[in-house]
């Protein structure tokens, strides 16, 4: 059985989701395995945590309903319902689900199905872009400084995250910054990354469910001492412990299709900032 966190916080627990999220992140290294699984699910799926039953949430987090009570109490809440109320209060202040809004658009405004889908996709993209306001400017400046001193920037990504590094490769080339995408039609990415030197830096991008090849490549480069700047979607991403700097990009979702608007906008800003920093020095 997992060891439990010994004591709940002495102060009253947060009653808003931003404060709760900060508390979970501050304590993430102290959670035993089962409670960490719940923490990951809660942060990655706040709507499902708000609306689900203890049984359904536990099943999706691959743990037991009783662990939800222990998780809540470890954070200072009276029980699971008290914790869930924070997620539900946050949900009340948000706009209706995409399905609800899509039905309303399609039925109420007389738009074609294609026009309705375009409208909702644009809404998801706007949510992604709005979430970039949470990026810490100091953290961004530190990441830019790390990348600006690179001889070569290695770009690591697979699957849904690949378009982000594809754009970065193009942008860096246009900006005169040496960058190399870790991709090969011959399957020799590991061998190519073997040419990386301590003077190089890495940008790694991966989103849930996290491509194993990306994590393996990032781990290889981290073990060789190369600083990694990662773009990911959760503080519990496997890229986080490998990274010198990491950024959580909360993408909007429409019908199960997650936007890349926030990640691409962040990549654009990062590329331009690195090029400017290199010119200054």
Task: List the keywords.
Arc Repressor Mutant, subunit A, Rossmann fold, 5-stranded parallel beta sheet, two-stranded antiparallel sheet, 13 helices, HTH_RpiR
Report on the architecture of this protein.
This protein is an alpha/beta fold and 281 residues long. The protein has 2 domains: 17-92, Winged helix-like DNA-binding domain superfamily/Winged helix DNA-binding domain (Arc Repressor Mutant, subunit A), CATH 1.10.10.10; 133-280, Rossmann fold (3-Layer(aba) Sandwich), CATH 3.40.50. The protein contains 13 helices and 7 strands. The strands form 2 sheets. It has a 5-stranded parallel β-sheet with strand order 2-1-3-4-5, with helices on both faces. The longest helix has 20 residues, at 261-280. The mean pLDDT is 85.
Largest sheet: 5 strands, parallel
Helix content: 40-55%
Structural class assignment = alpha/beta
Question: What CATH architecture of the largest domain would you give?
Answer: 3-Layer(aba) Sandwich
N- and C-termini, Cα separation:
54 Å
CATH superfamily of the largest domain: Glucose-6-phosphate isomerase like protein, domain 1
Task: Give the topology string: H per helix, E per strand.
Answer: HHHHHHHHHEHEHEHEEEEH
Total count of strands: 7
Alpha plus pi helix count: 13
In angstroms, what is the radius of gyration?
Answer: 21 Å
Q: How many structural domains are formed by the residues?
A: 2
Choose one word for the global shape. Answer: globular
Which segments are poorly predicted (pLDDT under 50) over 5 or more consecutive residues?
Answer: none
Estimate what percentage of residues fall within beta strands.
Answer: 5-15%
Mean residue pLDDT: 85
Q: How are strands sequenced across the largest beta sheet? A: 2-1-3-4-5
The third-level CATH topology of the largest domain is Rossmann fold
Please write the CATH class name of the largest domain.
Answer: Alpha Beta
